[in-house]
């Protein structure tokens, strides 16, 4: 058997390194790669399932087209390329390049993705999306405050005395982080989890705090006020490095009792939390992404971040605010949330853009030209975008659609032509993480099965037929192009990168150790004029109740978190996963269930003005009264469709998607 070191390219914090063994063109074994200090125990269940996934009988191995009757039949690459290139040229000639929609999701992270941008630029531009479904409100909040989105290396958690998992559930979404949490706990650290749900992460906590969804800013500001009032703020640090403290302190009016009313957390627990933080030497607050997918999400993150700022917990070991760590991040895509900054102007002539969060509604405002051709890759918008009814209607209205994917997802099922997408073992790429600092080389270890081609080759072949190939990377030049793309990242040679994951020299073990805050004032900005100017929010961190979009009378807040067995809409179709995971169900609290006369196993109808979904209930005390929980990423044929219930809306900053603002009603389904 041959052995390689590789990396998982899914959109996940962990971006695990692992060892892979091949024989006769097949992948035989996956083992941990211990020297990646962040992910020493190897991949999670999804990583191990690659043994099935890459060779799954349901994987798409050939181009397919839809017949008149709606079935998909296999076609040759020649037919696929000539049909698609013709459609693209025709659309451009008749309606201009903006009549083509280029939609990309987060299905594969790697430098290879840049070839897509190159292709569409060369084409003359396209209609694309701005913003992002995932994390941008929080990215922007951290950037406004600290200037840059970085945090200490993951293994520095071991030095913390107090870890606060605030709206993050790493036991499912970043399993490797729990290794470092466990070490910290062995060293005597306390773990506080702040989450409306009792998650697997909460099972490990010393204290679980369960606020009503969307109210965390009230909690954070009450804690900050208590810390200041009790004389526990670090004034030496504040005087040197923080701008706007006086204004911030003067703006804080919220008492523990008022916060208790808003959040549902008893006032004495809020005081305890403030004392724990204020009296601890080393506090790391780890804030998740779920927390900021609200209309007040950016301001929530700014409010929470004020706590480590006023206690001087930035730039020190065992301390900090861990949201995302872009120290090793080398993808252009990370500039995406910066699309309102000047360098974006360069792209303007090429793109016409609609909001990703409001895709379903904004699509219908596109006129002159309307969309004639849609190209969708690395994403499953029908399942993952809010307002999926509108999304489906939008895609239905497009005369010709190409989807590049590995499986027939709910989105691929709407395509006119499906092109098979590469698997992770089939093309070399360079991968990095938004959590650990490693840059990783992911070699090609087997040939693609069937007639699968990586996107880079697909684009090259299309470009050839459209007289654009001079601008696109040929398959023969691919490896050199890939490695040249990272030559600007210092601290390692190509040989070192080929051998094992490397840490670039720009990465710091302790972020902001040099107190290098690249905000307009050069200080940490509690008061941010930029926040007000760019986003129209209060220049200070503040609490506004989450928007209800006029559905205040509906009793439940809908929560649609991520779960251990999937990455969003991926992996759920595999036998290994289906074999070990219970089918998804609607989780309801015992008191709500009693009130509605509902029991575990009953079927319910969940509804609001956007739509309705039906499914089985699981009654559980893990769910807080007043919320209904169903994971995102479930395919329609498995009873998914939660995004039918979600109103397309943006977060307060960063152009994120406010998925979690949704209110719903529920009732027992009538027989
Ligand atoms: N296994 C697995 N891992 C993944 C993913 C996956 O789908 N599956 N997806 C990857 C991606 S793209 C992402 S974005 C990350 C996301 O991973 P996380 O950052 O962990 O985010 P979520 O799962 O969206 O939400 C985390 C927690 O926030 C809680 N929460 C929701 N609203 C609130 C609130 O108002 N206040 C508080 N305090 N808590 C709240 C939810 O109950 C949930 O337990 O995970 C990545 N890793
Ligand atoms: N209700 C609700 N909806 C949500 C969320 C939520 O919390 N609640 N979370 C949101 C978040 S955080 C995110 S990040 C998004 C994720 O939404 P998407 O970005 O759409 O991600 P996935 O669902 O993982 O789908 C990725 C697709 O890419 C395909 N793929 C994998 N590798 C490749 C490849 O190399 N090439 C190509 N062409 N395709 C490939 C996979 O098979 C899969 O079908 O969902 C969002 N949607
Ligand atoms: Mo995400």
What does this structure look like?
The chain is α/β, with parallel strands linked by helices and 671 residues long. The protein has 3 domains: 64-130 and 348-419 and 452-486, Rossmann fold (3-Layer(aba) Sandwich), CATH 3.40.50.740; 136-327 and 510-535, Dimethylsulfoxide Reductase, domain 2 (3-Layer(aba) Sandwich); 556-668, Barwin-like endoglucanases, CATH 2.40.40. Helices cover 28% and strands 18% of the residues. The chain contains 22 helices and 26 strands. A 6-stranded mixed beta sheet has the order 5-4-17-16-15-6, with helices on one face. A 6-stranded mixed beta sheet has the order 22-24-23-26-21-25. Helix 8 (216-229) runs antiparallel to helix 11 (256-263). The protein binds ligand MGD (2 copies) and molybdenum atom. One ligand MGD binds at residues 11-13, 134-135, 166-169, 172-174, 194-197, 199, 211, 213-214, 216, 288-291, 559, 561-564, 566-568, 633, 660.
In short:
This protein is an alpha/beta fold and 671 residues long. The chain has a six-stranded mixed sheet, with helices on one face. The longest helix has 19 residues, at 77-95.
Task: Jot down its keywords.
six-stranded mixed β-sheet; Rossmann fold; globular; binds ligand MGD; binds molybdenum atom; alpha/beta; 22 helices; 28% helix; Barwin-like endoglucanases; Dimethylsulfoxide Reductase, domain 2
């Amino acid at each position: 058997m041959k052995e390689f070191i590789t990396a998982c390219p899914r959109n996940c914090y962990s971006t695990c390194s692992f060892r892979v063994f091949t024989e006769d063109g097949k992948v035989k074994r996956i083992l941990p790669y211990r020297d990646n200090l962040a992910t020493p125990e190897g991949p999670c269940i999804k990583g191990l399932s690659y043994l099935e996934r890459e060779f799954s009988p349901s994987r798409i191995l050939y181009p397919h087209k839809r017949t008149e009757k709606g079935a998909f039949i296999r076609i040759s690459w020649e037919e696929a390329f000539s049909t698609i290139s013709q459609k693209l040229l025709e659309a451009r000639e008749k309606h201009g390049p903006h009549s083509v929609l280029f939609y990309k999701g987060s299905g594969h992270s790697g430098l290879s993705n840049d070839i897509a941008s190159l292709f569409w630029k060369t084409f003359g531009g396209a209609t694309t999306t701005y913003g992002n479904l995932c994390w941008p409100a929080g990215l922007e909040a951290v950037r406004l405050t600290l200037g840059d989105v970085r945090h200490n290396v993951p293994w520095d958690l071991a030095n913390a005395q107090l870890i606060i998992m605030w709206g993050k559930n790493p036991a499912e979404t970043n399993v490797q982080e729990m290794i470092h949490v466990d070490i910290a706990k062995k060293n005597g650290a306390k773990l506080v989890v702040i989450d409306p749900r009792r998650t697997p992460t909460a099972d490990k906590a010393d204290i679980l705090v369960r606020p009503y969804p969307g109210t965390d800013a009230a909690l954070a500001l009450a804690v900050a006020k208590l810390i200041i009032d009790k004389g526990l703020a670090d004034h030496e640090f504040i005087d040197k490095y923080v701008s706007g403290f006086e204004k911030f302190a003067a703006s804080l009016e919220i008492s523990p009792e008022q916060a208790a009313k808003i959040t549902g957390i008893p006032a004495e627990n809020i005081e305890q939390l403030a004392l724990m933080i204020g009296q601890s030497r080393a506090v790391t607050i780890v804030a998740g992404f779920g927390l900021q997918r609200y209309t007040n999400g950016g301001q929530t993150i700014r409010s929470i971040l004020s706590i480590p700022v006023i206690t001087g917990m930035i730039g020190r070991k065992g301390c900090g605010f861990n949201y995302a760590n872009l120290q090793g991040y080398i993808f252009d895509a990370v500039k995406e949330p910066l699309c309102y900054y000047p360098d974006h102007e360069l792209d303007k002539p090429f793109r016409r853009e609609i909001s990703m969060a409001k895709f379903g509604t904004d699509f219908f405002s596109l006129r002159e030209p309307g969309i004639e051709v849609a190209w969708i890759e690395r994403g499953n918008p029908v399942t993952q975008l809010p307002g999926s009814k509108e999304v489906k209607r939008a895609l239905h209205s497009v005369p010709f659609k190409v989807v590049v994917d590995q499986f027939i997802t709910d989105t691929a099922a709407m395509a006119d032509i499906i092109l098979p997408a590469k698997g992770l073992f089939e093309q070399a790429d360079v991968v990095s993480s938004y959590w650990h600092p490693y840059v990783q080389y992911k070699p090609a270890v087997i040939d693609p099965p069937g007639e699968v081609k990586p996107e880079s080759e697909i684009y090259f072949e299309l470009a050839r037929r459209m007289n654009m190939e001079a601008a696109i990377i040929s398959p023969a030049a691919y490896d050199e192009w890939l490695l040249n793309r990272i030559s600007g990242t210092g601290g390692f040679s190509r040989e070192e990168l080929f051998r094992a994951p490397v840490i670039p020299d720009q990465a710091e073990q302790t972020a902001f150790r040099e107190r290098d805050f690249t905000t307009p004032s050069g200080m940490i900005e509690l008061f941010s004029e930029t926040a007000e100017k760019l986003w129209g929010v209060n220049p200070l961190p503040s609490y506004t109740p989450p928007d209800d979009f006029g559905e205040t009378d509906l009793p439940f807040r809908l929560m649609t978190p991520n779960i251990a067995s999937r990455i969003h809409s991926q992996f759920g179709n595999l036998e290994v996963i289906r074999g070990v995971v219970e089918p998804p169900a609607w989780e309801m609290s015992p008191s709500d269930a009693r009130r509605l006369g509902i029991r575990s196993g009953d079927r319910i109808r969940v509804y609001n003005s956007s739509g309705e979904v039906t499914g089985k209930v699981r009654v559980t005390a893990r769910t807080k009264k007043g919320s209904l929980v169903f994971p995102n990423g479930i395919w329609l044929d498995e009873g998914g469709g939660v995004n039918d219930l979600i109103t397309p809306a943006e977060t307060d900053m960063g152009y994120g998607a406010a998925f979690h603002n949704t209110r719903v009603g529920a009732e027992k389904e009538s027989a």
